[in-house]
Automatic annotation (TrEMBL), chains A, B:
Keyword NAD assigned: yes
One family name in Pfam for this protein: OCD_Mu_crystall
Taxon lineage: Bacteria, Pseudomonadati, Pseudomonadota, Alphaproteobacteria, Hyphomicrobiales
Protein name: Ornithine cyclodeaminase
Top-level taxon in the UniProt lineage: Bacteria
Annotated keywords: NAD
NCBIfam families: PRK07589.1
SUPFAM superfamilies linked to this entry: NAD(P)-binding Rossmann-fold domains (SSF51735)
Entry-linked PANTHER family: KETIMINE REDUCTASE MU-CRYSTALLIN (PTHR13812)
Presence of the UniProt keyword NAD in the record: yes
Family: Belongs to the ornithine cyclodeaminase/mu-crystallin family.
Amino acid sequence: MLSPLPSAKAMVPFVSVENMMRLVHHLGVETVLAELTEAIEADFRRWESFDKTPRVASHSRDGVIELMPTSDGAVYSFKYVNGHPKNIVDGLQTVTAFGLLAEVSTGYPVLLTEMTMLTALRTAATSAMAARHLAPQGAGTMAMIGNGAQAEFQALAMKAVCGINTVRLYDIDPRATEKTARNLAGSGLEIVTCPSAQAAIEGAEIITTCTADKQFATILTDNMVGAGVHINAIGGDCPGKTELHRDILKRSDVFVEYPPQTRIEGEIQQMAPDFPVTELWKVVTGAAAGRRDARQITLFDSVGFAIEDFSALRYVRDRLSGTDFYQNLDMIADPDDPRDLFGMLLRAK
Amino acid sequence: MLSPLPSAKAMVPFVSVENMMRLVHHLGVETVLAELTEAIEADFRRWESFDKTPRVASHSRDGVIELMPTSDGAVYSFKYVNGHPKNIVDGLQTVTAFGLLAEVSTGYPVLLTEMTMLTALRTAATSAMAARHLAPQGAGTMAMIGNGAQAEFQALAMKAVCGINTVRLYDIDPRATEKTARNLAGSGLEIVTCPSAQAAIEGAEIITTCTADKQFATILTDNMVGAGVHINAIGGDCPGKTELHRDILKRSDVFVEYPPQTRIEGEIQQMAPDFPVTELWKVVTGAAAGRRDARQITLFDSVGFAIEDFSALRYVRDRLSGTDFYQNLDMIADPDDPRDLFGMLLRAK
């Protein structure tokens, strides 16, 4: 199934940032978000066929570097991703990423791609997939608290997949809100900029929090959250970094990707190790209930999981076929006689 | 210390297989092996300053795909490496690899490189470093059992670092031995091809085993190994894959890289969990004894550890300066305003 691309074994197709952006525009941003949502949901439906492991994190004072591997037995993927909140001060991305697909049967890589852009897309698609199952019927308005790099992707995914028509923006930095409003101006969404988080969540059926501080923060307090909403909590995604007051968690039904990882990294790191959660894949397959009634508060405690990257990488590889949105990298030494690696070196002289 | 290369943050220098071979010839193979040995030994000397974790392995019927991360607090590295013994049947490498260096302070990658060739070089350099501390004084002859992709690198590293002058070759497949003899013809080493493992080890002070079967094999049996030799056991490097009869281990002083990994992957997987071993880094710093007398059998149970890759990646990056043996990859999305990732996408349209 990974066949159509370059077959020369030594060559690995590489998708640069520029080519990823070309691919996204070629297909259309909302189409990509909608198709990614389907790709991720398809893999959540076969969740049990994946090797799962919490990401391998290397923490430092300034941030974290993580490797996120998974495999379905036929295809292997991993993502390299960092999280450095203070990068923004130096004009750098807080999150950058790249990823790789390989054939399990040979171990040979078959795709290398930038994943800063792709992670933003898949994170939004995962949120939309969760909201499709958990948000109240007919939700039309999303509050978007934290207007950083993820904000527009979230808004467009919720529009493309869940049919929202209004986004209410708030950020502690008004320039971030201006930026987001400007970028979404031609999107068909009604954009409302708000002076506070409290104002932003007014009338919103979906509340998305996506702020970047590496600390225990309280973007939402309990009194702010009314009955019946769906909270899409993106920013609490590493140890010591949360966004919601714990009292909100106690009133909510909490849905997670992979509990062993979320209990370390997500909002529920504030709670006891046996705090009840529902695995999102079980909602997707129908094995567990999603939203049960109109007054229930549902909370997707999203930290990002390797299977979502796997889906995104597979999707990109499929969509690359027949395009020229990649270059071939001479990344794998592949001598004619595999035992003659040294002879290959000798002959290169 | 990672400064001289391209500073454009979005660009990651990439060393292809072809450029790696150009770099090696530019410097000279034996020079690279000798300098790599020094680089690895320097990092073994500060072993305690590294984050260490057993590699993250994804096992399948046909082989294994592994990620090997480490960090010294300033620089992070990881290697992707597969091990698929049956690949050779399909004309593929059993081991292919690539690796990455990143700045811990920002999480930004600063080097991506092929590591199939580089792993062969660093594995041989690590063997030579161990042999320099453990082989008998004045060792002049090495037996090389298993004449696959690693054989020539091992021979040249032992020549460059330990001063051996003779290599005695044996492989179950005579064509592998012919290939190795041919490749080493101009090296200055005396090459003796042997009809059996038993014949190969005759008179050898250093015995290197490097065979590829993924199974419990017995390349050496106890009666074959005389007093005073140094055994450099390379091929036992994943669960279920060993080369030596366990009776040899009982007679030897065993030296390892990182015990938690070697007890799973190395020759000592055959022994009890408390089988005594000495960590090689302690020999390098003088904290533990290496060879104590002329009759002792020393055994380096080598499985390869992430710090060796770290050393090799750092070495390559240093040696790239002032050369054109790399290309810049547009791998990191780096918008002018880091929060404006979506604006970057919009403007690319």
